[in-house]
Design a protein that fits this description.
The chain is mainly β and 134 residues long. The protein is built from two helices and eight strands, in the order E-H-E-E-E-E-H-E-E-E. The chain has one domain: PUA domain-like.
Length: 134
């Protein structure tokens, strides 16, 4: 469906064709069985710590810039993607509007951690452990 390493225009190539929230880091598609995940090198500025644990495990911060992160909306879509029959696709921001396809992933687990939000206020965060499947 998507080619690893290929760059896609988020609006035209992803949301116009498949749906999903055009601004959220986690974008479940209402009419297609996909959940798009977006990461960015600048994520740490907003309290996110997305990183590779090893060559096949990616640690992905849940959504929410302020206050404690909760297991709801997009975060719940990640946790429940297999039961809901949805695929998780991860994209990394290259430049404004352009994202490189990293791969298809599966949820393994999640953990609660202490972190900070956009305003540098302490909060509870959720970090997902995702396994690269392709």
């Amino acid at each position: 469906m998507f080619e690893i390493g290929k760059k896609y225009n988020r609006q035209q190539d992803l949301h116009d064709k498949y749906g999903g929230n055009r601004q959220s880091g986690i974008a479940p598609c209402a009419n297609n069985p996909y959940v798009f995940l977006f990461t960015s090198p600048r994520g740490e500025e907003y309290g996110y710590e997305d990183t590779w644990e090893n060559e096949s495990i990616f640690r992905y911060s849940s959504e929410g810039q302020y206050g404690d992160m909760e297991l709801e909306r997009g975060n719940l879509a990640i946790k429940n993607h297999k039961n809901d029959g949805r695929d998780l696709f991860l994209f990394n921001k290259v430049k404004s509007g352009e994202y490189e396809f990293i791969g298809k992933f599966e949820y393994i687990s999640h953990e609660m951690k202490l972190g900070v939000d956009f305003d540098k206020v302490n909060r509870r965060t959720i970090v997902f452990k995702l396994h690269l499947v392709n």
